[in-house]
Amino acid sequence: MKDGFEGLPDLSGGPGERLLARGVSRRDFLKVCTGIAAAMGLPLGMGAQIAEAVTNPKRPPVIWLSAQECTGCTESLLRTNHPTLEKLILELISLDYHETLNAGAGKQCEEALKKSMQENKGKYILVVDGSIPVKDGGIYCKIGGKTVLSLLEEQGSQAAAVIAIGSCSSWGGMPSAYPNPTGATPVHAIFKEKGIKTPVVNIPGCPPNGYNFLSTVLYLLTFKKLPQLDEEGRPKFAYGRLIHDNCERRPHFDAGRFALEFGDDGHRKGYCLYKLGCKGPETYNNCPTLLYNDAGSQAWPVGTGHPCFGCSENKVGFNIPLHTPAVLKDVTPPVNFPGIVEDKGKGVTVAGAAIAAGVAGAAIGVAAATSKNLGKKDKDKGKSDPESKES
Amino acid sequence: MSEPRPLGGKIVTVPFLFFSALAVLAVILIIKRFFLGLGAVTNLSDGYPWGIWIAYDVVVGTAIACGGYAMALLVYIFNKGEFHPLVRPALLASAFGYTLAGVSIFFDVGRYWQAYNLFLPWYSQLNSVMFEVAFCITLYIFVLWIEFSPSVMERLKATGMKKTMDRIMFVFIAIGVLLPTMHQSSLGTLMVITGKKLSPLWQTPLIPLLALISAITMGYAIVIFESIMSAVSFRREIETPILSKLSAFIPPLIGAYLVVRFGDLVVRGSLGEAFSGGLKGIMFLIENLLYVVPLVILVSKDNRKSPQKLFIAAFSMLLAGAVYRFDLFLVGFNPGEGWHYFPSFSETLITVGLISLEIAGYLYFVKKFPVLPGAEHA
Amino acid sequence: MDIKRRDFLKVVAGSGLLLAAGESPAGAIARPPRTMPDEAVGLMYDSTICVGCKVCQKACKVSNNMPPEHTQRPPEMIDALWDNPADLSEYTLNIIKAYKNGNAEVKNREDNGFAFIQRHCMHCVDPACVSACPVSALQKNPKTGVVTYSKNACIGCRYCQMACPFGIPKFEWDKAFPQIRKCQFCDHKFAEGGYPACAQSCPTGATIFGPARDLLAEAKKRLTLKADSYYDYPVQRIDSGNRVKQKVASYVTRVYGEKEVGGTQFIMLAGVPFGRLGLPDLGDRPDAALSEGIQHTLYKGMIAPAAVLAGLMYAAYRSTKNDK
Fold it and tell me: Which residue, A382, C35, C62, C129, is the most exposed by fewest CB within 10 angstroms?
């Protein structure tokens, strides 16, 4: 990983006034930042630091590259409320290029892209959504006459960091499902093949939660480094735990209450969806705790009664049939299970041993004493009545 | 040798009080067991469902109480009338031993209030070794008291009754020989079904034969032991000549036992286990060493004339049989990894209480009833 | 003296009538092992697809009215909220245990792996407990082959516990009026056309119910499956039609219970050798056959004992007559 991201703009200046001008109180704004800090598992004081970073007059440039995608990721991002996307793109970052959100079109946009890339070489953040087709020279997805493959190579090699948003750019996603006709490939795989060293953060999901994206961006801006990533390149604050572990229906699983088919009694009562093929037990994501679209409790697939599809998990979503039971991942190490051999029964105690030894000792002692007396008797035969145990 | 007669003398002596007190303690603990369950007083578990109450009170206890059986076999079946004076004390000890084994089974079984189910034909399960053992032991307890009853009749001066009894006694004597033959072997057979839970040092289809031979051997040993013990305790002359003759029967029995025991182990190829160094191997060696001691002592005619040697041989023989039974039911038994058993304090105390009751009862009976041969007081 | 010694050897030879029977090889005395009834029902447990959710354990408790138990060791692990028995007991007739080796990374692997195992009554084809019970409290249903228990018959001698090679019957040690507890195959559910709660509740098809013979055929079929291929595993009942596609793990090529102690109606498959899962190597012969063989050789029709008794009576009569 690049050290410190010195390429990013210096954000040490004073706080901006734009937000206040737009009627957002400083207090509200700090609340948002604190919320984001909490979502990432950062100390509370970090909220102020984030606020300071994002209100810096010099907004970090962002270029958004759309490959084989469905715009779901953008749509999902548009539904974030704190901050809203327009706030993000207008005030927090400088979104210089985004196919869907561009104000202009065609040549005008391509010029803007070119300009931004030249001005911010090595400083901009590249966001990629959608997988990259590599089959047949990558002809299955082109922008302005160029294949996305070549665009990614060009833009990716000059970026400070790449955020691969959505399952498609993270691990191939839906376009890569069998038989993968376009040769859909995730960003990190292409970078690896082409030897591009720009760091990649994967935010898988179909679509991913907008806040996981936002939090990553803000972390990057604030600390000038990437958040902690797991071995799949996902930020740990969002993908550190299994859905199964935080699921509101988990107690039903533990107690063996399952919905057996859609609409049955158990389903209506909100029982565990494991038997319907829920992939929560093998999918790492924070859906059950973060929820979607700020719509209140249960606003996520399992909450609405549908089994988790495993969309964000490589080799699960789009790979394993929807209703095939998941492979449980968190039963290792099985500390909560009794072992094959358990200690049972009651062994020796001091009192138990003492009385047993006492009895054995007494028996042998009496026998020994008697035998001794008899020995004496043997010797002085005739002289009867030796000293002995009386009646 | 004169007719048996009561010893007379004070009943309430220090030993009598001591043993009675222990018996009372045991009774209190037994009451606790009836209210709080077996788990409250014993260390028994699902892995070791049988502990010392079965291994000692029943299996060793009845084997030690085989004196009556062994003597009846000798005196009545093989018609060796000269041993007659030893019969009554042996019978009394047997009657006590078996009765107390019966009592201990009663508080050992979990559903004692249904114990009579054993004798209801629609519940009886004839494939069960336990059924045979329980049935025979129960019958034998009655037979033993019937065999002992002439002493009581003499004491009560019920001469007519005693005459009738003497006339039909041969039937009970015969049954009294058959029943122990059956159940002493079957007590061993009980462990056959435990299969691989019992160490190969003890698990063999020949368990019944071994159990029977060693029970008979223990029967003679206890007669010798008891005779010497009571002679010493009551300051009577030791009946050395008759005991010496009796002891001559023990070596061939032990010899036969050891031949079967080791022959079986060799044939099954399990002898090596004895030297594997574990507790089981060590106990096996101790057990058989204890058999060898009386064999070596009693083979010599001179040794047989020494009360001390006789006593040591008899005691060692009793220990040998007892250790064999402990090994068979507890030491050699392994219900699987993770299980532990060692008798609890209360559990052992109850067993001790029963033995004490037996001794106290014996002390009472020999003083009040014509049991011991009326030898001249020293 | 010599004569007497000979007499004694005769005693040894004659008194038990045992020698002839006892000295022949064990197989010869043992009665033939029993065979499985044609309509025998069974359970099959496939450790490779068990996820350790313990639903069967809980369903068993509900079905049999058993209280939760908090005996898992070490004691600091005890969580008094959930049922967490350390092992089978009088309160737990069915349990999921875990095998763990090294870092316990991969399921169904012996080294550095883990696996689950379900334990409950095996419902032996030739059950030792039934043979041992002196009062017919334990019985094997002649049609279904289920081993059931009747507390009205039981005297609490616990010989069944001694006899069972799998340590299944449990005794209520802490009750003044105890009984034996064991899995009875949810016998009470059969009357209403039901089947064991463990199979009914299992979400993955790790425990399934069905005719014992069909289960054995299914088990053998699974052993032929290629590892990592997909197979439609039946769920709940072998004939339920409800199947779930799952990846096949590599099996240990043995159906535990096919031959063990003469066969059992609860059979198991696993990806880890059964010895590591706490299932003993018991051989194919039922111990009950030998034990009963010995008894019936000696006591068949009570002919031998009756003959001995007649001889004894004659001898005793002669001696007592001589006495007086």
Answer: A382
